[in-house]
Design a protein that fits this description.
The structure holds 3 protein chains of 3 kinds. By secondary structure, chain A is an alpha/beta fold. Chain A has helices spanning 5-12, 109-116, 147-150, 165-171, 190-219, 231-240, 253-266, 283-289, 313-319, 337-346, 352-357, 361-366, 411-439, and strands spanning 20-28, 35-43, 46-51, 61-64, 69-72, 74-79, 119-124, 132-140, 158-162, 245-250, 272-275, 292-295, 324-326, 384-387, 398-403, 406-410. Chain A folds into 2 domains: 1-73 and 374-447, Urease, subunit C, domain 1 (Roll); 74-372, Metal-dependent hydrolases (TIM Barrel, Alpha-Beta Barrel), CATH 3.20.20. In chain A, the strands form 2 sheets. In chain A, strands 1, 2, 3, 4, 5, 14, 15 and 16 form an 8-stranded mixed sheet that branches. In chain A, strands 6-7-8-9-10-11-12-13 form an 8-stranded mixed sheet. The relative contact order of chain A is 0.16. In chain B, strands 1, 2, 3, 4, 5, 14, 15 and 16 form an 8-stranded mixed sheet that branches. An 8-stranded mixed sheet of chain B has the order 6-7-8-9-10-11-12-13. In chain B, 56% of the residues are buried. Classes of the chains: A alpha/beta, B alpha/beta, C alpha/beta. At the A-B interface, α2, α4, α10 and α13 of A face α2, α4, α10 and α13 of B.
């Protein structure tokens, strides 16, 4: 009877992937089948069948979801959870040598909390202290698994860029609140931010040329000395080769447009604009560039560049032809992205499906993983969330969350687990007290 | 003449407070009684003059037919920085958190900027009343204040702060000393992570925190003792008596006329605060309690109301239930503690009804959630006779909606504050309209 | 008569001053050889600093000083596999890996970057890997050792005769050296093996930020440190190739620029990587494999977890396990906060780690991790024994195992003929906290421990471990 934390959580946690039939649910597929009342069959971690009437395979576990709603797993396109030892390498204005992949912390309780909020995939981004930040990647919230097992297999990795206040504040000894940097770090203006990006790609192109020449010689059967591997430029070379997505933290319309023009000049595509609170002002240009937009529903006014934020941003950009997602950037907000999507209905009149897509299919598209996740379609990963009510309203709560057909969160079991946790804690505290008393006998007064 | 008519029709807030409005065919949700369908409401001089099945429109009254729509009392956020803070990261735009440990003489009301964009943003979501605090912990200023001043209850609309005022001094704010600082203030929010990384860290509780707490309580007691001596001296009309603004401000507290709004998160701190208040013989309201299940029985027994913090907040620690914050309102309800909700920032004020809905998802009865947004705060802040329900004689702070105001899909169709119809526009709507038109 | 004389001498000379008899015979003692069977009653002969003979029936040479070992036990001298002893002013080594637990969800996480304990002295602000920040990879502990370090005497009192001591500042601290804990005039006398491997620390990334704060420049986060170490090894590889090519035919080729940081790295035959938590063990095992360097993981606090043991076993890892078990923080009695379940489990289970590693057949050694005071050290080992480690295995993990890990089992780590005469004589079992170390031989030189510090007293500075739970 092992009584480790993991044992407690594992026994009550994920069941093995099995054949599961979820019946009688209102299924919001965000896919070709629209919303209907019926069943979803999960087999070998994938969605095997979707329909009003399905055959229950022999030996399948049946979940009667009468009165409940089933949606695709929620995808957060902007998160900073599950990292160890800082998620900002803010010392330099180009930190593309660092990689979130190196510091995944599967024990971060925020993963479990996100899971309990219906999130099955999250794009873990480097912070925004520098014009070109570190490398990033999406994770599946497979709580209880190791760092490597959380990585979203096959997903194109990304890199974080940042414009505006954050990268310039980090560089300016006078700027910001209390972040006195003894030595000023370039840049301190939006002009400088643009320059940093252009200079970095200027270097990256030279680096790429060097390697291309080398690769050509090798292809001819020669054995030249390889150029030096420069991790910083390597990441940008991958951007130039379309092997790495660029996610750009931005606020103001001017800087968004600047980024588009820089990308056009350099020759790469911005995959997503993040925050992009003034995206609605340059929606036409974003749409023309082909970038996605990942924004907040209604967060605003926390800083000057967030002052023209409007809650209609998501729907307005959507109507202008941009793939829009709603993200959290926050371990708490992450737990109710479903209702953030609901606000897209309120502000700007998105339909249920359009709103739900903003936290499922659209972020999947933005991350290039929509072939496997983002909607309830046969053949996709069985990443599913069951709510006890209409999932875009705050009146609903998550009942079950499946990832790859495995139940990773079950509210009923959570309640039992909590009691077990408390009991185990008490046992350990008592044990420790007892042993302290044993080893350090109470001093008695001299007789 | 025709042009004038158009101008008048498009004018914002077409009816001034003195005007008469008759709302017909309303499904009224009065809060303190069962819903009544299809009745009329007569509004005059900012108040609900009459309500009933058949009210004849007085001459000159504006008639508003709201068939199929619902009427609710306006919602009240019991803890905000509204009017005192515009942009969180710009100190120049923030007027909370004055310097000084004991600043009871400060009044939030007179620093409220009626033109703050936040008012426009929150009222179109049905927040018609708010309590504005001089300091919710001093994010803006020095922090660490013990007594930071007087909170004001106000309408979220008005030309001046005087017109917005419901009660300029609903509570004296006390940050009760505790070892964990203001521990338990829910994580999440405040600002996005991308901003937080720019901030210097919060200083952790030091090892001798306990001693610091005792020191602070001692300071607090001394201040109260001095205030009492002053009160006596003043009453005795002693010769040579010299007025003191700080102590004058304390007199309503000492007389039990004004409650202390006490920030206390943990159960022990709440207990200490209650014991302290009993000793001082003052009334208190607890702000942002976190361990209601533990603190509930005592709060109930002592009849102490609470203002619950954000429902959408992170658990206190790794081991806490994931839904710890979501269930606090239900816990308060189960314990029989009187409670209202507060968002404790400006950024989430407009989401107040959705926070209440989350509480419903996690056990709170639906009606109780509505009360926590309306009649409970009105009563807790001593304005139960003036607002918080749809009743004759109360302020006409009304929402006219196409559904449950706690449901995110619901739209507000008409809004009345102080009897005046409020245009459902604001800076954000204007930007939306403007940029929707960009080809 | 002789015995009496010696005893008198013992009393008078309870100091660090070594006696140097040319030949010593320890008679009638229980001899725990570690490499072979325990000799219930036997003799060890020391000659010329080496073990000349050991056995039940060994003749005592006529010129020998005789120590009557009746009622005493002879052990091989203990080896501290990761130490800073001998390097003046050094903080004891600590496996401070990783940092804030990320997940800013948890409240009260100090966001201010804690100045990495192992940060190099304020230098030029680093703007990237090319500046070789916090790197002194070229340093050899052997060149830094100061003969007069008082800690030598202290740890010898616990029975240590050998330490692998490292320069620990910065990310690449430099190479450790294996030293014998003699107190002499010259540091050079102490050096057993000058280059024992490169010490790498991961500092402590600062909470969420790291930010631009601190002013220390790059790297300011854990991922920055990892990227830096990775770049250094890529550079070292490239540097080596370029140098080889140049050596072969310099004509027409740019002269490669001398890079002492890379020279230091290339000269290191193994690396030591920090890993305490399970996630760090996983991470560093992968990282070490990626770097293609022979490696030792140090710290290993979470090795008690079955998952950790599995990982270590699969990777065929070598582990230095810290004896500094996590302890409860000091709290005021009415504090409401309790530790998290995770921390409580760590405290409960961490001392089972040696037994777990032993059972799993993982190559490991124990190290004192700054527990210099003999009583603290003995208590820590005792805790491992109370948690399932046999006394024999405990002893091996502090003698022959570290010797094997560092490739010096042919000269230290057990009582065998021909090995260096590093021996400990005790009254009682060496890991009982009531035991007294009667004398210690290092390189055949005899030392008598001074009165040990009062129980509970901590010798040396305490390590900079993240503390109980180690998560903050």
């Amino acid at each position: 009877m092992k009584k480790t934390l993991l044992a407690v959580l594992v026994t009550l946690g994920p069941l093995c992937a099995e054949t599961i039939v979820i019946q009688n649910a209102t299924v919001m597929t965000v896919g070709s089948k629209g919303t209907f009342k019926g069943s979803v069959v999960v087999k070998d971690g994938k969605i095997a069948e979707v329909g009003e009437k399905v055959m229950v395979p022999a030996g399948a576990t049946v979940i009667d979801a009468g009165g409940q709603y089933l949606i695709p797993g929620i995808i957060d396109c902007h998160s900073h959870i599950a990292g160890d030892g800082g998620i900002n390498e803010g010392s330099v204005s180009v930190s593309s040598m660092v990689n979130i992949r190196d510091i995944i912390n599967p024990d971060d309780i925020a993963i479990y909390r996100a899971l309990a909020g219906g999130v099955t995939t999250a794009n873990i981004l480097h912070g925004s202290a520098n014009a070109i930040g570190g490398m990033t990647l999406p994770l599946k919230m497979r709580w209880g698994k190791s760092a490597q097992e959380m990585i979203f297999a096959g997903a194109t990795p990304g890199i974080k860029f940042a414009l505006g206040e954050n990268p310039k504040r980090s560089g300016n000894p006078q700027g910001g609140r209390g972040t006195a940097v003894p030595v000023a770090r370039y840049p301190a203006t939006r002009m400088g931010v643009e320059d940093v990006i252009r200079e970095a790609f200027n270097d990256a192109k030279g680096y790429k040329a060097e390697w291309d020449a080398y690769d050509a010689l090798v292809a001819r059967g020669e054995h030249p000395l390889a150029p030096r591997v420069d991790l910083k430029l390597q990441a940008l070379k991958e951007v130039l080769e379309n092997k790495r997505y660029v996610h750009v933290h931005c606020y103001r319309a001017d800087e968004i447009l600047m980024m588009i023009r820089v990308a056009d000049d350099v020759g790469f595509k911005v995959r997503t604009f993040q925050h992009v609170l003034e995206g609605y002002k340059v929606a036409k240009e974003i749409a023309a560039h082909g970038a996605g937009a990942s924004t907040f529903s209604d967060w605003w006014a926390y800083k000057i560049e967030a002052i023209d934020a409007i809650p209609f941003n998501a729907t307005l950009m959507m109507k202008k032809g941009i793939v829009v997602s709603l993200n959290s950037d926050d371990a708490e907000l992450m737990r109710h992205l479903n209702t953030e999507a609901g606000k897209a209905m309120k502000y700007g009149g998105a339909t249920e499906t359009e709103a739900l897509a903003m936290v499922t299919l659209n972020p999947a598209k933005q991350l290039g993983i929509d072939k496997t996740v983002g909607s309830i379609e046969v053949g996709k990963d069985a990443d599913l969330v069951l709510y006890d009510g209409f999932p875009l309203s705050d009146f609903a709560k998550v009942q079950k969350v499946l990832i790859d057909g495995t139940v990773y969160f079950d509210r009923d079991k959570e309640l039992v687990a909590q009691a077990a946790k408390e009991a185990e804690k008490k046992r350990l505290i008592d044990k420790e007290k007892a042993s302290q008393q044993r080893t350090q006998p109470v001093r008695r007064p001299n007789q | 003449m025709k042009i004038l008519g158009i101008l008048m029709a498009s004018a914002v807030a077409a009816f001034a407070a003195g005007d008469v409005v008759l709302i017909q065919n309303a499904d009224v949700y009065p809060i303190n009684s069962a819903p009544i369908k299809g009745i009329s409401l007569l509004i005059q001089d900012g108040k609900i003059l009459d309500m009933g099945a058949k009210i004849v429109a007085p001459k000159g009254a504006m008639v508003l037919d709201v068939k199929g729509l619902r009427v609710y009392p306006g919602m009240i956020d019991s803890a905000t920085d509204l009017g005192l803070e515009e942009i969180e990261s710009i100190r120049e735009s923030v007027d909370t958190g004055e310097i000084g440990d004991f600043m009871p003489q400060l009044r939030a009301l007179s620093a409220v900027n009626p033109d703050s964009e936040h008012f426009g943003v929150v009222r179109v979501n049905g927040i018609t009343g708010a309590v504005t605090f001089p300091s919710l912990g001093g994010r803006g200023g020095t922090g660490g204040q013990l007594i930071s001043g007087q909170a004001a209850l106000l309408h979220t609309d008005g030309w001046t702060w005087e017109e917005m005022e419901i009660n300029r001094s609903v509570a004296m704010c006390l940050n009760f000393p505790s070892a964990g600082g203001r521990g338990g203030r829910g994580g999440g929010g405040g600002m996005p992570a991308d901003m937080q990384d720019m901030l210097p860290g919060a200083v952790g509780a030091a090892g001798n925190a306990q001693r610091a707490v005792l020191d602070q309580i001692a300071k607090l007691n001394t201040f109260f003792d001095d205030a009492r001596k002053y009160q006596k001296a003043k009453a005795a009309h002693l010769p040579g008596f010299h007025p003191d603004l700080k102590f004058d401000a304390m007199i309503p507290v000492l007389e039990g006329k004004m409650p202390l709004a006490v920030s206390a998160a943990r159960a022990n701190t709440i207990h200490d605060a209650i014991a302290w208040a009993e000793k001082q013989n003052v009334k208190i309201v607890i702000l942002q309690p976190r361990e209601i299940a533990k603190a509930g029985p005592e709060l109930k027994a002592k009849n102490i109301p609470v203002i619950l913090g954000r429902v959408l907040a992170l658990p206190d620690n790794e081991d806490a239930e994931y839904d710890q914050a979501f269930t606090q309102p239900f816990e308060a309800y189960k314990a029989g503690v009187k409670f209202a909700l507060g968002t404790f920032t400006n950024e989430f004020v407009r989401d107040l009804p959705y926070q209440a809905a989350t509480a419903v998802a996690y056990g709170l009865p639906h009606d109780e959630a509505l009360k926590a947004l309306t009649i409970n705060p009105a009563e807790i802040w001593g304005a139960g006779d003036k607002l918080g329900s749809v009743e004759k004689g109360k302020y006409a702070d009304l929402l006219i909606t196409d559904g449950d105001p706690m449901d995110v899909r619901t739209q507000i169709r008409h809004l009345f504050i102080n009897g005046k119809e409020i245009t459902l526009s604001n800076k954000q709507v204007r930007l939306y309209e403007r940029y929707s038109g960009r080809q | 008569m002789k015995k009496l004389l010696l005893s008198a001498f013992l009393v008078l000379c309870a100091s660090a001053v070594a006696e140097v008899p040319s030949t010593v015979a320890i008679r009638n003692a229980k001899i725990v050889t570690v490499s072979g069977a325990v000799i219930a009653k036997g003799t060890v002969i020391i000659r010329g600093g080496l073990i000349d003979a050991v056995g039940e029936n060994v003749a005592v040479p006529a010129d020998a000083w005789v120590v009557d070992g009746e009622g005493m036990t002879v052990y091989p001298g203990l080896i501290d596999g990761l130490s800073t002893v001998g390097i003046a002013g050094a903080a004891p080594a600590a496996a401070a890996a990783g940092g804030g637990r990320g997940g800013r969800g948890t409240p009260a996480t100090p966001a201010t970057p804690t100045a990495p304990a192992a940060q190099a002295a304020p230098a030029e602000r680093s703007w990237g890997p090319e500046d070789r920040p916090q790197t002194t990879s070229w340093l050899l502990a052997a060149d830094e050792i100061q003969a007069g370090d008082r800690r030598v005497e202290t740890v010898r009192g616990a029975g240590f005769t050998t330490a692998v001591t490292f320069p620990t500042r910065g990310i690449f601290g430099g190479q450790g050296s294996i030293i014998d804990l003699v107190s002499g005039e010259k540091a050079a006398e102490m050096i057993l093996v000058p280059a024992a491997g490169q010490y790498i620390a991961m500092g402590r990334g600062g909470g969420f930020g790291g930010g631009g704060g601190g002013g220390g420049g790059f790297p300011s986060s854990l991922m920055g440190i990892i990227a830096y170490v990775r770049q250094v090894y890529l550079d070292a590889d490239h540097y080596r190739l370029v140098k080889e090519a140049y050596a072969k035919d310099p004509r027409g080729m740019q002269r490669p620029e001398y890079d002492r940081a890379l020279e230091g790295v290339l000269a290191s035959k193994r690396i030591l990587l920090p890993a305490n938590r399970l996630v760090e063990i996983d991470r560093m095992l992968r990282f070490g494999a990626e770097l293609k360097q022979p490696m030792i993981l140090y710290g290993a606090r979470d090795a008690y977890l079955p998952e950790a043991a599995d990982l270590l076993k699969k990777a065929n890892a070598t582990v230095l396990l810290s004896l500094k078990w996590p302890t409860a923080p000091v709290r005021s009695p009415d504090a409401e906060d309790t530790d998290t379940l995770r921390m409580l489990e760590q405290r409960d289970k961490a001392p089972t780690a040696p037994a777990v590693l032993q059972k799993a057949g993982i190559k490991y050694a124990l190290y004192a991790d700054g527990l210099d005071a003999p009583r603290d050290f003995q208590r820590a080992v005792k805790k491992a024994i109370d948690n399932g480690l046999s006394r024999e295995d405990a002893l091996r993990a502090l003698t022959l195992s570290p010797a094997e890990i560092y490739g010096v089992a042919d000269r230290v780590g057990s009582i065998e003929k021909g090995k260096i005469a590093n021996l400990v004589l005790t009254k009682g079992d060496i890991f009982d906290d009531r035991t007294t170390v009667v004398m210690v031989f290092v390189d055949g030189k005899k030392y008598t421990p001074a009165e040990t510090a009062a129980p509970g007293g901590r010798g040396g500075a305490s390590t900079d471990d993240p503390g109980p739970g180690g998560n903050r």
